[in-house]
Design a protein that fits this description.
about 450 residues, mainly beta, six-stranded mixed beta sheet, 3 helices, 30 strands
Length: about 450
Amino acid sequence: MKKLIASLIVLLAAPVAAQDLAQPATEGGVVETEFQAEGGLTGATTDESDWADLGIAIPGFAADRDVATPANANGTAALGREIARVITANLQNNGLFKPVGPNSLPQPSFAEITAPAWGNWRGRGAEMLVHGYVRARADGRLVVGCYLYDVALRDELVREGWVVPPADWRRAAHKCSDIIYARLTGESPFFDSRIAYIAETGPKDRRVKRLAIMDSDGANHRFLTLGSATALTPRYSPDYKRLLYLSYVDGNPRIYVYDIGTGRQTLVTQSTNPTFAPRWSPDGRYILYSMAIAGNTDIYRVPATGGQSVRLTDTPGIDIGGSYSPDGKQIVFESDRSGSQQCYVMNADGTNQRRISFGGGRCATPEWSPRGDQIAFTRIAGDFNIAVMSPNGRNVRALTNGWQDEGPTWAPNGRIVQFFRTERNTGKSALWQVDLTGRNERKLPTPVDGSDPAWGPILP
């Protein structure tokens, strides 16, 4: 695979852009933001292969002059090294690359950003080289440039730059990670995205569950609710402005929309019946939810702006947990109408309901991949594990082997599944990620225990 990647990069390498990002932009000027890559390697469907470990050297980003910045008390030179560390950590945690960070590498000068000292990088086991710079502008903002080079070919593969407020320096690092990932894999990236989850504290029988959000790597963590009412199952709106979640604020489970900018909360429906399992439609126009009436639970759809709900299922038992296909035309959901929890698919208007899971065990909390070619779910067969299957229910594969793994949510590129794992006998839970090979598990750092993750799309 490594040889394949190298040969395809030769074929697809883009011409160097005319604008030179290493030259300081004029005051008030904007560096280019056009993505230079003509394409990557593959990517029509979710890639389940165990890719090669591609060596990538990521030295500290250079500074044209070392000046104080609100982004780092030690100045822009220190900030350049921090940016390189964030990129290294991003690329290290997905099982695809072997990045080497700035601490063990020579520090390039500002002039070397567009003219790498190739002799410094040969013999270090790195096929790829990331260079970049950070410059403080007079208006207080930062200019961050990012370059990817093929060391063997001495060729520039991609370049891009951003002007960001000091508080957004990590977003520039994530964006640089995204263009490297996209250029080398041909897949959509996922680093510049955010995760909502339930932050848990307290003993097993008195858990306090709060709504929280953070960047995809766990940075910029924020608690949104105080924990006086239990919160569950958050979901980001497609534009990142709102969160759907379940709250017990009045003693009954009810769905609220939380406006992240204002903190204002709105009930999804005015019904006094318990409502739960909220999901956005892909275009953000509708909210899918479940409602229990007289012991029977069905799935409903309501416009996100409010209005009359439409009942989509009408069978005895519990129908719950709808998740739209990326094109919004179908919904996968969980139902016990057959006598046990199984997964079903129906058209978005509720027609053509059909069971898709028939293997051993039960099927719960299904979540459709952003690419549309897989459905992740909680497979209950003794233990709880995360599994994936085709939308027709075939090709079932377990990705994890824990005691209680549940609640899958997809990365924006559909290659990584995030879930939460509960420890046996303790009730303690944490957020984990696994790629589609099932061989690269990673625990995501959170300040307290975590559950019910929801991975949002790439930031607008």
